Amino acid sequence: MSFTELSLLKHYKTYKNNIVREFYTPVLQEAVLYQRSVGFFSSTALIELSKGLSGIVKNGGKIQFIVSPYLSKEDVEAINKGYEEKKIIEDALLREYKEPENYFQEERLNLLAHLIEKGHLEIKVAFTPPNKSTGMYHEKVGIVEDKDGNKIVFTGSLNETINAFYNNYESIVVFTSWEESKQYAEEMKEDFDLLWNNNDENLEIIEFPDVIKERIKVNRKESVNYNIDEEEKIEEVKLKKGIPHIPDGFELRNYQKEAIDKWAAQDYQGIFDMATGTGKTYTGLGAAARLYEDKGRLAIIIVCPYQHLVEQWVEDIELFNLNPIIGYSASKQKNWKKRLEDDIFDYSIGVIDTLCFVTTNATYSSKFVTEQMSNLGKDTLLLVDEAHNFGSNTLRNKLYPSIDYRLALSATLDRHGDEEGTDCLKMYFGNKCIEYNLKRAIDEGKLTPYYYHPLVVYLDEDEIEDYKDISYKISKECHADKKGKIKITERGKMLLLQRARIVAGAKNKLTELRNIMEDYRDATHILVYCGATRVRDFESDEEENIRDDDGERQIVAVSKILGNELGMKVTHFTSNESAAERELIKRKFAMADPYQAIVAIKCLDEGVNIPSIKTAFILASTTNPKEYIQRRGRVLRLAKDKPYAVIYDFITLVKPLDEANEFSVDYNCERALAKRELARIKEFGEISLNSRDSDELINDIEIAYRITTDDLEEDIDGTEFG
Q1: Rounded to an integer, what is the distance from CA 108 to the centroid of its chain?
Q2: Cα dist. 273→208, 426, 503 in Å?
Q3: How far apart are CA 114 and CA 223, in angstroms?
Q4: Looking at the structure, do residues 688 and 666 belong to the same domain, yes or no?
Q5: In 47-97, where do the E strands start and end?
Q6: Torsion of CA 205, 208, 209, 214, to 10 degrees
Q7: Domain PLD phosphodiesterase spans what residues (predicted)?
Q8: Which residues contact 333 (CB under 8 A, 6 or more apart)?
Q9: Domain CATH code at residue 431
Q10: Distance of CA 408 to the CA centre of its chain
Q11: Is residue 441 included in any domain, yes or no?
Q12: Is the pLDDT assigned to residue 140 strictly greater than 90?
């Protein structure tokens, strides 16, 4: 085949082209002469240069390389002082020679050894004599000629180093003699020949040192594998950066494979309902790898709630051989917008066959990303972590119908009190492909077993009065729709939040915590889960309506008890700490040096993994099953020297159970709170190691407030008011 029949680009860039595969290999397979001035020499460069050379050898061709030594400041000074130039250059070249690290490098050095021995490959060294100039020879030009005399000349920023080929942002420009560049190609050929024959008065050319030839010959074998290009090409396709595949030596578990199979059978749409610690992320990435294998091209868009979750995903994404664009406000990839824009354009016109973009919910819903997503359609996978968030009014309109392939990851997809949002998610993502709950995860050793201790505390008189007052106001904000379903106004939802904060910040919780923590003064790996609430001082409040910012923050009050009163070493874990600070806290906490306890709020709900937690005190919980299931999951991660975990759950009731009176005007109000707390006790207690210990409390609450199983199966959205 003639060069004129090749499909060549005018410009190759390393960030979007595999220059070796797309340019060097096809050109050299048709060449009879390859001349290259390559800049600085290294053995890895020689290995890369050997790609495609089997073709030119079969053609009986010749290869001529001019390399330049990388001279240190000391080398230049030695040459200027008159020391032997050849010895200094020889030593400089030897410094850049590294032994082969794998089978392919060994075979390629074997090929080079045979080429040098048979005279197919000649290498010369160019350098600037001290009496000519103070500069260095650093030209980067290549000339290739075929059997018909057609010439290809290429030049640009690309050095023949493995770093330049694959890591740097480099490029080459291509000129051909059969088009408008004939004169330029001929001139470059003449310049190279002039240099090769040592006729350039500004440069000195010496033969390639014998000592390095001998180093190369050490790798010579009896025979040459001329199919090494094809063998490595197969391996490259498998391991090419950006092509998703299961990591070598790693195998998905059977339940993960089954989930992926079912997802594929559902036209690559579905939900992975998987408890924390069961390999949800790996299953999702395994699904992406399967889809790429099935379709041959794929744009992968991964969305998760927070920045720290994006970074956790990045580690696993890279493990699956993807090279993600990381998009959010503080991304370490400062040019992520440009990369995303370029890759989506290249993908849409078929220049590349895969891309991966991982981002936060907020960035995904931004104007810029929205505009970019409009350029994607088929062959796009939308993979959403903690997908329940996408049922919100803000995010659900970002569930684009033009995207064919969809995957939702969530341990709790149902949105508490938001039937419309839940239905929207199920309609978009489809049916569940797997349901792997906490009990199964514990039974199968994916999570640690645990002991559960519910601790009952009561509202004080001021808190009861305020709780009842807000409940009355909530009742005025609730109305039945045409179907008889209770709906609540936006003001009512704000009042629900205020009432929940009264329960979360009950002062008696601090008293109970202080008492029980006496036994944990010297313990380590403790988590105290607070609410984003305050412990109110009602006596000092003279206003008619209590504000949300009244009183001391619960997290501060707890820290004072543990740190000041009990002398424990504690730290906060909140949204106020940076990602770097959180990572440092996690490491120090795992070693119990210096921190015994972490006092945290909501930022632990989704995705933050601190496996070393052994004992948890949950002061502020929620009636939302999604949230309290997540909080429990944080505590049950497997860790060394952690045969089980212990959970203390602070249960809030209006008054002692023996004082409950069904004829009281406040009975329904008290019952509503008891009902919500009972649902959590049952959920936590049922699969605990000491499940019988909570049975008595469950029975007492059910009797006192006449709560049945049917009552608990109703949708508890907090609108009950009594």
Answers
A1: 35
A2: 64, 12, 30
A3: 9
A4: yes
A5: 62-68
A6: 180
A7: 133-164
A8: 325, 326, 327, 339
A9: 3.40.50.300
A10: 16
A11: no
A12: no
Distant-in-sequence, close-in-space partners of 491: CB < 8 Å, separation ≥ 6: 477
Distance (Å, whole) CA 82 – CA 93: 19
Closest CA to 261 of 272, 276, 250: 272
Contact 155, 172 (CB under 8 A): yes
- What does R_g of the chain's alpha carbons equal in angstroms? 34
Say which residue the tokens 């008054």 belong to: 655
Q: How far is CA 58 from the centre of its chain?
A: 46
Tens-place pLDDT, residues 701-712: 999 999 886 666
The amino acid sitting at 49 is L
Q: What is the dihedral of CA 413, 418, 421, 422, to 10 degrees?
A: 40
Sign of CA dihedral 383, 388, 391, 394: negative
Q: How far is CA 334 from its chain centroid?
A: 17
Q: Does some domain include residue 442?
A: no
Which amino acid is present at 116?
I
Find the helix or strand (DSSP H, E) in which 19 lies: helix 19-19
* Number of separate domains in the chain: 3
List pLDDT tens digits, range 245-298: 888 778 899 999 999 999 999 999 999 999 888 889 999 999 999 999 899 899
Which of 397, 415, 436 lies at the terminal end of a domain, its last residue? 436
Judge if 456 and 598 occupy the same domain.
yes
| Segment (H or E) for 406 | strand 405-409
The Cα–Cα gap between 296 and 298 comes to: 7
Q: Are 602 and 626 in contact (CB under 8 A)?
A: no
With residues binned 3-state (H G I as helix, E B as strand, rest as coil), the percentages for the chain, rounded to 5, are 45, 20, 40
Residue 182: domain span: 3-238
Does 355 fall in a domain?
yes
Length of the chain: 722
Tokens of 453: 């201790």
Last residue within a domain, chosen from 215, 238, 261: 238
Amino acid, res. 89: I
Judged on CB neighbours under 10 Å (0-12, 13-18, 19+), 97 is middle
Backbone angles phi, psi at 599, to 5 degrees: -110, 115
Q: Are residues 432 and 530 in the same domain?
A: no
Q: Which residue has the higher pLDDT, 407 or 592?
A: 407
| pLDDT score, position 138 | 64
d(CA 220, CA 113): 6
Averaged pLDDT of the chain:
85
Is the same domain home to 587 and 535?
yes
The alpha helices in 430-507, defined as continuous H runs, are 438-443, 461-475, 490-504
- For 439-498, the pLDDT digits (tens) are 999 999 999 999 999 999 999 999 999 999 999 899 899 888 777 777 889 899 899 888
- HSE-up of residue 269 (Cα within 13 Å, Cβ side): 15
Instruction: Looking at the structure, tell me whether residues 263 and 352 fall in a common domain.
Output: yes
Q: Are residues 424 and 461 in the same domain?
A: no
| CB contact at 8 A, 247 and 409 | no
In this structure, the answer to whether residues 464 and 531 fall within a common structural domain is yes
| Pairing between β-strand 171-176 and β-strand 151-156 as defined by DSSP bridges | antiparallel
Residue 706's closest CA among 681, 680, 670? 670
Long-range contacts of 659-667 (CB under 8 A, 24+ apart): 660/704, 660/705, 662/706, 666/468, 666/722, 667/705, 667/722
Token look-up 């392939």 returns: 405
Q: What is the CATH number of the domain that holds 66?
A: 3.30.870.10
Q: Is residue 223 part of a domain?
A: yes
Write the DSSP symbol of residue 382.
E
